[in-house]
Amino acid sequence: xxxxxxxxxxxxxxxxxxxxxxxxxxxxxxxxxxxxxxxxxxxxxxxxxxxxxxxxxxxxxxxxxxxxxxxxxxxxxxxxxxxxxxxxxxxxxxxxxxxxxxxxxxxxxxxxxxxxxxxxxxxxxxxxxxxxxxxxxxxxxxxxxxxxxxxxxxxxxxxxxxxxxxxxxxxxxxxxxxxxxxxxxxxxxxxxxxxxxxxxxxxxxxxxxxxxxxxxxxxxxxxxxxxxxxxxxxxxxxxxxxxxxxxxxxxxxxxxxxxxxxxxxxxxxxxxxxxxxxxxxxxxxxxxxxxxxxxxxxxxxxxxxxxxxxxxxxxxxxxxxxxxxxxxxxxxxxxxxxxxxxxxxxxxxxxxxxxxxxxxxxxxxxxxxxxxxxxxxxxxxxxxxxxxxxxxxxxxxxxxxxxxxxxxxxxxxxxxx
Amino acid sequence: xxxxxxxxxxxxxxxxxxxxxxxxxxxxxxxxxxxxxxxxxxxxxxxxxxxxxxxxxxxxxxxxxxxxxxxxxxxxxxxxxxxxxxxxxxxxxxxxxxxxxxxxxxxxxxxxxxxxxxxxxxxxxxxxxxxxxxxxxxxxxxxxxxxxxxxxxxxxxxxxxxxxxxxxxxxxxxxxxxxxxxxxxxxxxxxxxxxxxxxxxxxxxxxxxxxxxxxxxxxxxxxxxxxxxxxxxxxxxxxxxxxxxxxxxxxxxxxxxxxxxxxxxxxxxxxxxxxxxxxxxxxxxxxxxxxxxxxxxxxxxxxxxxxxxxxxxxxxxxxxxxxxxxxxxxxxxxxxxxxxxx
Lengths: 417, 342
Ligand SMILES: Cc1ncc(C[n+]2csc(CCOP(=O)(O)OP(=O)(O)O)c2C)c(N)n1
Ligand code: SF4
Ligand SMILES: [Mg+2]
What we know:
The complex is a heterodimer.
Chain A: E1 2-6, H1 7-17, E2 22-25, H2 32-43, E3 51-54, H3 58-70, E4 75-79, H4 81-86, H5 88-97, E5 102-107, H6 121-125, E6 132-135, H7 139-156, E7 160-165, E8 173-177, H8 181-187, E9 204-205, H9 214-243, E10 251-254, E11 261-265, H10 269-282, E12 287-292, E13 294-296, H11 300-306, E14 312-317, H12 328-335, E15 343-347, H13 357-368, E16 375-377, H14 382-394, H15 401-409
Parallel strand pairs in A: 2-3, 2-4, 4-5, 5-7, 6-7, 11-12, 11-14, 14-15, 15-16
Antiparallel strand pairs in A: 1-8, 6-13, 10-12
Chain B: H1 49-64, E1 69-73, H2 77-82, E2 94-96, H3 102-115, E3 122-128, H4 129-134, H5 137-145, E4 151-156, H6 197-203, E5 208-213, H7 217-229, E6 234-239, H8 243-246, H9 253-262, E7 269-272, E8 275-279, H10 288-292, H11 308-325
Parallel strand pairs in B: 1-2, 1-3, 3-4, 4-6, 5-6
Antiparallel strand pairs in B: 5-7, 7-8
């Protein structure tokens, strides 16, 4: 049923239809509305056979999910930003143990400086943690990916992060088709664990493993993610058959067939990029966009194929590796090994900075003339940066950087939460 | 197979031999049907108090739950010595996740059992003092506060043993550890630090808190049994000497534990909903020197010259335990009246 609702509520309603048995959560913006919605559904009986546990930290949230998942319960949590870092050790543990936990990540920047707004730094900080990471382009896809995620996680016995842009999606009202319980039940069978704590058949889970088998255990985690490369498109196809909607999959291309320039991005910014590209197409420019839905596993072959015949690739990424540059672009480069065209990394939208059509248009025009630097920061305020660099050059006690910049810009710190 | 009832009993102690007791009061370990939940063949040091405590505690919990038990285990000696790949000593469903999250993992297990309607299956979480009083404290306090249906057992050997005997917040004043070496003006661990987790647990007003000691194993078993009769958050803190970390002979573990109790260094108590319900009295009070002397971690208190101030400080702490919990009915002999604790 098509419903005009907030992204968080669409996700909460859809997660509830997936019949989670244990939900544990610790509040952090912009994830709060999702777990608030779920707690209400557990309280008012809409969501039955489910334990909602208010834990004391994100570390506990993931740990409770580890315990419940290992005991055979379908387990769900949600977090963002600092919360993801606070649970980091347990994030790795969940994947190491092979527990199919599904977690929504309401993507948010990581401090300091503390910032509640959207970018992808949180997700990227855990990109090597052994979780699958799926990125939603809009609220419909955010909702749909959760249904696919439970199915995929449980088939592989691996945890999955469904990433949706904080505020831009979580707090946006859009029409979302919330499926029926019968539809979801037909797609998502009850959880049948591969390993379970049960006195009827005692097992030891999480034993110490030394050099004699550690590599093999880690390789198997990789092998399962490689299996996911086949499974993800398959499940998206089945999803379409069941729900009549094209959602999920590994990558999504738009007007790339004859494109000389291919823009690569993840998440909600794809919408703005498509609009920009439509305008450029009208002007006869051959440009298209490739959205990565599955960032982990990384669809190396699919991306390699999609950018094979273009002349250049520009990756617009909402995070970066300080001291190196782009993160997504480095992975994309490995996908282009056979056909090494120029590739540009553009860091944009950090800490919620708006990525406007104007800026993107300018950026794409520059890149199509091959005049872009290999690493660019979109809309960077060079004046502010240079003033601070100069201040540090002339004064030892130059003071806290963030506060200096805000003073220079004449603004006060935004509300934090 | 026909079972023969074997009667075990201790000599040289004040405890009553099994053969004199009603069958239901006999030690779980004396029962042919004991589960050997932590089976033999594991890699603990000889005389390890933690292995002994765990064996008694978990077998008692198994008996009390009709073998319907799942255990979550923190990183630490118990986890490492019981499960080196590809072996496991655990005969029960057992999970090790991390060092600091065991109470939360147990909460998750309990939640899953509840939602699946398997409430006959019970949950034990267990860890060392470091995993309990330090790194796992947040998760433990959360589990207490929510009154989750978990029995948490802390095996307190007063330091981080698995990583080579470093100080934890359960390490006593003056004790030598690898990070509180016996050098300088105030050798060993400083006084006036650390936390008393049984009291902190009591302050959460959870249904059951108890301390136990490996020299009083039937008391330990009885406390585990009592804990399993109750639903909600429960905590048992077991004092477990560590021959390797303490520098004691491996055949002295029980003896050292007994001295800890008889000097008042470790009070053996139980409390329900924050109120003290049971105190194991000291039978014959001994001076703390008797407890300290056989342990190399305290050797610097006695040689080259005795550190009388430090010994008096430890005595004052023992005396405060005696006063606070009423461990002896008469006033402590030779106690420095009103001596400051820290
Ligand atoms: C997050 C984290 N920090 C540190 C360690 C290293 N570590 C493993 S076991 C251990 C000591 C355990 O001490 P305790 O909990 O007292 O148990 P014991 O070994 O003394 O029985 C430490 C410090 C770890 N595994 N994980
Ligand atoms: S170091 Fe101590 S706690 Fe660890 S196995 Fe040896 S005796 Fe037991
Ligand atoms: Mg210890």
